[in-house]
Predict the 3D structure of the following.
Amino acid sequence: MKMIAKIHTDLPTKFGLPRQSGLVEELEGLIVFEPAYRDPEALRGIEGFSHLWLIWEFSEAKRTTWSPTVRPPRLGGNKRMGVFATRSPFRPNPIGLSCVKLLGVEKTPDNGTVLRVGGADLMDGTPIFDIKPYLPLADCKPDATGGFAAEKAGYSLKVDFPAELLAKVPTDKHAALKALLAQDPRPAYQHDPSRIYGFGFAGLEVRFRVEDNTLHVTEIEYQMI
Amino acid sequence: MKMIAKIHTDLPTKFGLPRQSGLVEELEGLIVFEPAYRDPEALRGIEGFSHLWLIWEFSEAKRTTWSPTVRPPRLGGNKRMGVFATRSPFRPNPIGLSCVKLLGVEKTPDNGTVLRVGGADLMDGTPIFDIKPYLPLADCKPDATGGFAAEKAGYSLKVDFPAELLAKVPTDKHAALKALLAQDPRPAYQHDPSRIYGFGFAGLEVRFRVEDNTLHVTEIEYQMI
């Protein structure tokens, strides 16, 4: 399987990643093709599609063995489901599937033609195997039922983001960061209201705690480069 | 990339395959897991989902080189589009993506637990790399635009299937075969009304010709085994 491109996002680690693609549309990513696949002709006609599929590698989740069951964080991390009934990264083949919005096809001086996408749930630097157009006729199933994954669909947190901390975040990143925080970036459903969590975002380290149904941002630090 | 399963369908070759998954829901497939992945625990909870994603190998379309553009049959076979703007089998990585309906999770004496699915656009014997649940929240984009692929969306043929030929087809295969024929199984948009085309289906050889907007079945033969 060849890496055809890499995606660049504001999330340097798996912490803070949205639970599914499309949940945080404000989150932008830039798809940069590898030199061998950097041909604008390969994208001819792609601007006619509003959404794309990314098929990518769970590059941080490679294992030599596989387990038939996994514990989805959505179920509190204490209930096992069959791996093929989940989108868990820990599966026989480390393949991820994400639907993203196509925001732009852009020519750059250094990286050739790149794709700007919204709603990606991928870590910065994730290798991409394939890009396909989203075909509403074949892919959109409005009558589909979502199994256990649908149960927590409406779940979100209130976000308390003190103005002096928000001021440390570039303005064009406010919406994405707030949306990321609202979807509860805690690793599983841990419930210690005094515990401070943190994750990297757009060169910042974001720290917060969660009490009842509110996430309080406690610190914004600039990351060392 | 490991083959975790194979799908069994009524289509022994690429001729006659639906152009996309879901277009011919009557077409049933049986997913049989490889012995190393034949663990019913890996499917725990999957029955809660109405639809699944199959990520599979274009096993008949492997090439050592790639072309940045392809000619989609939907556009008459004479217009080139960027490979990433199509679902063409000829792409840098031979990965297929199909949404299918989950019809049943069944225990068999010989093959362990298998999945029965509807609407598969896969050749008999196609290797499967991964199975993921369809998550309506993340995957269903009712506002998506379908680019050039949407233009021919409503296209179908009338089917003239003489009763004496239809009688040679097992009754439970009638609906699927008629639906397959209606979606025009000609290789590209060839328009010679006298030309006879044929493809294998469920152990039969189906022959037909197309005049104006009607497909006439001309022969049904039993295939040698």
